[in-house]
Automatic annotation (TrEMBL):
This is V-type proton ATPase subunit G. Subunit of the V1 complex of vacuolar(H+)-ATPase (V-ATPase), a multisubunit enzyme composed of a peripheral complex (V1) that hydrolyzes ATP and a membrane integral complex (V0) that translocates protons. V-ATPase is responsible for acidifying and maintaining the pH of intracellular compartments and in some cell types, is targeted to the plasma membrane, where it is responsible for acidifying the extracellular environment. It comes from Jaapia argillacea MUCL 33604. One of its GO terms (cellular component) is vacuolar proton-transporting V-type ATPase, V1 domain. It comes from the Eukaryota. V-ATPase is a heteromultimeric enzyme made up of two complexes: the ATP-hydrolytic V1 complex and the proton translocation V0 complex. Pfam families: V-ATPase_G. Belongs to the V-ATPase G subunit family. Residues 12-51 form a coiled coil. The keyword Ion transport applies. GO terms for molecular function: ATP hydrolysis activity; proton-transporting ATPase activity, rotational mechanism. InterPro entries: V-ATPase_G (IPR005124). Keywords: Coiled coil, Hydrogen ion transport, Ion transport, Transport.
Length: 120
């Protein structure tokens, strides 16, 4: 009977070792599948990124002329407005300087409107 129990225990130990091997193989398989999935996802992401970059470059190339034309129009408008402002400055600077000097130099002493005369 002892031999039969010993043989049963031995069989259980061997079955446990075999089960541990199966579990270990399943873990390794799962880890490998995860690595494969990550590498596949990385490849798909890179391919998608290349496609979108190519689309963007095509879009940029097709609209580059429009941007340059708009920039040229803005530059021309800015130059025109700047010239107008410069002309106005040159035309009116003497008058403005004279008005400022008259205000500073020609002072009329007056009592402040909030000052009340003493005794009244």
């Amino acid at each position: 009977m002892a031999a039969q129990q010993s043989q049963g225990i031995q069989t259980l130990l061997e079955a446990e070792k075999e089960a541990a091997k199966v579990v270990q193989q399943a873990r390794q398989y799962r880890v490998q599948r995860l690595k494969d999935a990550r590498s596949e996802a990385t490849k798909e992401i890179e391919a998608y990124k290349k496609t979108k970059e190519a689309e963007f470059k095509n879009f940029e190339a097709s609209h580059a002329g429009v941007t340059q034309d708009a920039q040229a129009a803005v530059d021309k408008d800015t130059a025109g407005r700047l010239q107008t402002i410069t002309d106005s400055y040159q035309k009116h600077k003497d008058v403005v300087v004279k008005k400022l000097l008259d205000r500073v130099v020609l002072v009329k002493p007056e009592l402040h409107r909030n000052l009340k005369k003493v005794g009244q």
